[in-house]
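[job 0417] fold request received: TauD/TfdA family dioxygenase
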Amino acid sequence: MTTETTGLTALSESAPTRAPRRRAIRLSELDLVTIDTEGGLSVLVRPRVPGVDLARWLKDNHERVERLLGERGAIRFQGFDVTTAAAFESVSSALSPELLNYVYGSTPRSREKGGVYTSTEYPPDQTIPQHNEMAYSTRWPMKLWFYCQYPAAAGGETPLADSRRVLRRIDPALRARFAERGVRYVRNYGGGLDLSWQRAFETDDREEAERTFRDLGISYEWFDGGRLRTWQVCQAVVSHPVTGEAAWFNQAHLFHPSSLPAEVRESLLASSGEEDLPRNALYGDGTPIEESALEEVRAAFAAETVAEPWSAGEVLLIDNVLMSHGRRPYEGPRKVLVAMTDPNPVPGSPAAGGEHEESK
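[job 0417] inference complete; emitting structure tokens
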């Protein structure tokens, strides 16, 4: 249970000839929410009384929320009065000073309001595999906020998988190989088959895009017709900067051509070489990643994935290092919004921590 100071007042007994006095209810006198830590993969928080302001409750219980998030990796807030993108923006900025932009994004989204975006705009019949947001970069958000404005008629869950447990399921020799070499991500923009570089980097200005490349440590090459190729070597396993726990943290299984349907992959390779595919993943030294290795990774995700249905107005907070997410296919209208906060510590800074520790 947790409590919060409120503006509620109570009448105290007084003489009949006097106006009734009011006294403020103290912090310990009213429990505003229930906190269930045993009902599933994520912690479930629900209001005990009507009208609890979730943004204010988060601010007043910052340390408790951070502790629960570090322990479990995900917290669901159900039954609060969050009905608009503006209300969600207030909630998602309650623990952090600002919302992050989706620069260097890999999937199509639309900006809803400020730092609030739509969730990935893929057709409803498609599955979005488990992944940690922007793990294909050296910079990523530490916190992800999701808000279900209205759930689908069927399906459409945002499944979760504990990245610490995923790491432990992968063969030690394979995870050591990934940890040592890292992952090289290659992206080709301008072929009409994936995001344009303008949309991915949220600018039409080449010079501004190049400043972003340099800031993020991305190598690049321009080609005729405005085509662009970028590549970057990134981490495969990381240590959480607060808990120190090791977690599987990359998107090799999404960027690799083996993630494509067989007919799409064959068509792309027939029309161009592998170096011109819209996206690809190699080991950091440039050698190919074995498809059998990625099948093992996908199996580890599948074994740890848990899907819970959305409810209207629900907010989900996840630690982006400790927990991966995805999307199940769905039927009927569905609207889920996303906000990102808390950029990861700059590599090498004291807040970034040391080398990762293999999970025992």
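[job 0417] notes: The chain has one domain: 30-352. The domain at 30-352 is CATH 3.60.130.10 (Double-stranded beta-helix).
[job 0417] exit 0
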